[in-house]
Amino acid sequence: MSQESFTFTVGKLDAGMAILLGERAHLIEFPSILLPPGATTGSIVNIAVHQNHSEERRRDAEFWALQDEILQEFGVHSPAPPKLQLRNVTQTSITLEWPAIELATAKLRSLDIYRNGQRLAPIPSPLTNTSSKLSGLELNTEYTFQLILRTTAGTFPSNLIRVRTHTMSDTFGISVCFGAVHDPVMLENAKMALREMKAKWSDTIQIDTTHFVCTTPAATPSGAAASRSSPVAPGVEYQRALQLSIPVVQPHWIFACHTERKLVSIAAYNLGATPPTPSAAVRPQSMSQASLPRSPTSPNVRQSMPPLARSTTPGQTTSSFVNQPASSSSPTSPPATTATVTAPDDPSVEDAQTESASASAERMAVMEKRMSRTGTMNREFKFPPTSPTPVSPTGDAPNLPSIQARVVTPSNIEVPPPPPVEKEAKDGGGEAGDPGEEDVGDTVDIPLN
């Protein structure tokens, strides 16, 4: 290794820096700590510079060892994308599951679930939770689901799952957890019905459990009988079902689903309710097929109303209800086209009704005639006193054969002719013989009573 020495003169020392003056360099700054001890301003020093190759090799070896360690720690193992799987599907819910997420040396930022390409919700406790149940879905609708894992090492999406929810006739999505059933034969029949519907059951509540089936909230069937003398605490699975809002039904609900071959409502099969009998489950007949009273004239024809009868008196209608009094129609109203059932024939009643209708029609004709003609009013005229016999507002005579009612009509009253009125010529109008306007004088209100 060759060395070359350079001669410098110390020009100035200031704040740890020395100004060196040399032959080849006019001015350079040099750390004063590297000067020989005792060197001051004006001292002459020799400085030699050479390259240390051995130290360079040692430094490079340390650097590449550190790079290999970083590669093995962070470059070989990285987070793995989640593997999403379908566990169960019902009419309005879907259950998804996946293995535990692998983060390697990265840190978790979030684990979100996406529905139809839109972020639905974050997964709670993503480091320990490996399943999720999504409810509130539409019936018989196709959906897509995906998990998105975000870490400090990047974003890792899962596989895409496409699934369609069930219809009401699909029963293989039912997942039952059995509790305490008092009848072992009923329990076995319920499991057989589930097997035929391709449904599943278990003895513990799981993430995809749809219904909890039992006949008593106690842990064992004997607990129901024992609770009469001493209180028995409900079972653990029953309490979990209440906490998770899982419907608690009786085994009869399984039999109803098996019979109807579809998912039936649980309203009539809740725990404590009286299940409907098989005969009550049959749909009732419609009103058109129900048993209705038949007409005596046509016994083979069903009808929804009693037989109709037509009125024989013109302008008279009968009531639409049985054994109700008849009402007369006004002369201006059109005749009724629908007749109804009347009371049994009674000669006295028919005569009274006929006389009442005739008197009413006669009174209305007289009143219309008087209203149509013109004339003057006699101020001394008064109506005759009313008859003591009560008359109904409709003009019908009371149906009392023993009472003779006399009807006073306006045609029986003699009205005196009005006094002659002298016509005078209007002041300032024409000659003496010219006709002018009549002076009727002041108007006076005359009480008619």
UniProtKB/TrEMBL annotation:
Amino acid composition bias (Polar residues), ranges on this chain: 285-303, 310-324
GO biological process: one example: conjugation with cellular fusion
Ranges that cross the membrane: none
Ranges for region Disordered: 275-449
Superkingdom of this protein's organism: Eukaryota
GO cellular component, one term: exomer complex
Positions of the Fibronectin type-III domain: 80-170
One term of GO molecular function: protein dimerization activity
Segments of skewed composition (Low complexity): 325-346
Residue ranges of domain BRCT in the record: 194-271
UniProt-recorded name of the protein: Fibronectin type III/BRCA1 domain-containing protein
